[in-house]
Amino acid sequence: MKSSLLGLALLAATAAGSASAADTRLYEMRTYYVAPGKFDALNARFRQFACRLLERHGMVNIGYWTPLEEKDGAGRKLIFVIAHPSREAREAAWKSFMADPEWQAGYRASEVDGKLVEKAEVQFFKATDYSPMALPEGGTKPRAYEMRIYTAAPGRLGALNARFRDHTLKLFARHGMANVIYWNPAEGEPGADNNLTYLLAHASPEAARESFDKFRVDPDWVAARKASEEKAGGSLTAPDGVKSVFLRPLDYSPLQ
User: Fold this and answer.
1) Number of Cβ atoms within 10 Å of the Cβ of 199
2) Which of 28, 109, 129, 132 has the CB geometry, 3.0–4.6 Å to 20, for a possible disulfide?
3) How confident is the model at residue 23 (pLDDT cuts 50, 70, 90)?
4) Where in the sequence is the domain holding 132, given as residue range(s)?
């Protein structure tokens, strides 16, 4: 995990700058739907050898989570993010990883009692030009992460990104929310023209709700939202276009 932490530290050092200069990597988000009763076994596989082997083959572990709430798949979904220098590097890395004898042996041993994953979903992202990469602030308690997924109204993703760049990030921070990373889908991916996905970190879901209650009535936010919507000619997000899920970092996740 040392290379993961080093990479995160370097990104944290440039958090005040733009990701376009510091972070041009391809991010891969993988969501695993875990076979019944196999969540602990799947975690053991990542903890004991899979994370280490991903890095052996040039992939950077960013974070590993499961949803906090039952309705979102707590203990039934494993969501993780890894980073690659490029799409080509990603293809080469996965090819060499899958051929690694240690992976093959570990994979077979972990599935002697049945498959651990029923289905996998893969998404590819690029960091926005305003995205920071924040390390945990210390302490012994893991933070509650919140993944927020926005669907922009047609033709308004640029305006939505501008509002986050110029106003929203600093207002989130004002109200105690830690900006972690902001993505748009990679070129050619579904949602590349209308999706913004980002991670916030909070002390707890309760703290998140308190922060958002204060954020929503902040006069600076009210003014920024009004101005951005007037300029765009309407809401920047599609109807029902904001989704949120709270995530718990797993014990082997670099981001805690």
Assistant:
1) 23
2) 129
3) confident
4) 127-249
